[in-house]
C-alpha cells in the first residue's frame, strides 16, 4: 500500500522508480570505479534496488516482503565501498534522477536521503 503524501507517490510511483533504476544501472554498468564491485548481469541487483527505493520513498514494502529487513550496511560489507566509489555511485544516481526528470523539491529530498545512505555504506578508507 502506498501512503499518501510520500515521495514515492509524488514522483509518480512504480514507473518513475523503474526509470530511475534503469538509468542508474546503465551508468553503473559502465563506470570503471563501480564495475569491480557489481556483477556483470545487473538484472537481480536492479530488481533489489527497485524494491528498496520503492520502500525507502514511502511506497509498498517490497524489499521487506521479498528480502527481509534491508540491513544495508551489513549486506554491503563484502564490497569495498571507498569514498571514491560512494562519489561515483552518487554521480550515477544524480544523472539518473536528471534523466528521469525528477522535479524539485523531490529531487533534492531524494538526493539528500541517498547521500546520507551512501555515506553510511562506506566501509573502506
Automatic annotation (TrEMBL):
This is Globin. It comes from Virgibacillus kekensis. Pfam families: Bac_globin. Keywords: Heme, Iron, Metal-binding, Transport. PANTHER family: TWO-ON-TWO HEMOGLOBIN-3. InterPro entries: GlbO/GLB3-like, Globin-like_sf, Globin/Proto, Hemoglobin_trunc. Belongs to the truncated hemoglobin family. Group II subfamily.
Amino acid at each position: 500500500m502506498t501512503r499518501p503524501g510520500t515521495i514515492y507517490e509524488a514522483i509518480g510511483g512504480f514507473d518513475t522508480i523503474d526509470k530511475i533504476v534503469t538509468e542508474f544501472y546503465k551508468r553503473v554498468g559502465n563506470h570503471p570505479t563501480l564495475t569491480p564491485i557489481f556483477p556483470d548481469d545487473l538484472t537481480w541487483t536492479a530488481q533489489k534496488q527497485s524494491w528498496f527505493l520503492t520502500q525507502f520513498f514511502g511506497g509498498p514494502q517490497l524489499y521487506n516482503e521479498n528480502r527481509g529487513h534491508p540491513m544495508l550496511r551489513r549486506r554491503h560489507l563484502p564490497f569495498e565501498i571507498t569514498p571514491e566509489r560512494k562519489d561515483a555511485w552518487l554521480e550515477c544516481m544524480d544523472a539518473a534522477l536528471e534523466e528521469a526528470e525528477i522535479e524539485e523539491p523531490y529531487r533534492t529530498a531524494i538526493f539528500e536521503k541517498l547521500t546520507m545512505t551512501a555515506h553510511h555504506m562506506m566501509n573502506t578508507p
